[in-house]
From TrEMBL:
UniProt-recorded name of the protein: SKP1 component POZ domain-containing protein
Source organism per UniProt: Caenorhabditis nigoni
Origin: domain of life: Eukaryota
Amino acid sequence: MPRGCEIKLKFENSDEIYVLKDMEVIKRMPLLVRAVKKKNSKWLHTRTILPDPILIPYPKESVIFIISHIKTYRMPNEYPEKVPENYPDAHALDLYDLRPILEAATHLEAFSLMNVAGFLIAKKLEELPVEKVAEFMGLEYVPVANFYDEQNGWIRPSTSGSSSSTA
C-alpha cells in the first residue's frame, strides 16, 4: 500500500482549502501530527487522508510562509553567528508581518519557525525607540518620571505630576 498523507487546511482569512501533502513538513508540526495520528496511528507507513479541513486561525500567508521555510530554517542557536541574515526571506519582512508568523508557528508548534520569528522580532525591536516598541507591544508608553510619592512612600503612576495621595 502506498504511503503518504493529505491534510486539508482552512485559514481565517480565506475560503480556499490548502492541501498539505509533504510528510517532512507535517512531521515538524506536532499539532498536525496529533491530528493525523488520531485518524491513523500508522500514518507514516500507510496512506492517510484527513477528510475534514483543520481550521488554522491565522492568515493564510503566515502559514504558507511557515510551510515554505520549515525545512530550511534552523534554530538561531544552530548557527555559528546568530544574525538576521541567516533568514533572508523572514528578515525582509517587517514586524507586523512577523507577528502572525510567530503566532501561527506557536499554534502549530513549529518550534524552529517560532524561534526564528521571535529572534527576528527581537532584533528589529532592538533598533527601535521605546515609543515604537510600546506601540508594537500594544502598550501605552509612559515617559520616564518620578513615580515615588514622598508623602506616603508608595510608588505609583503620577496622574497630573502632583504627588498628592487619594487614600
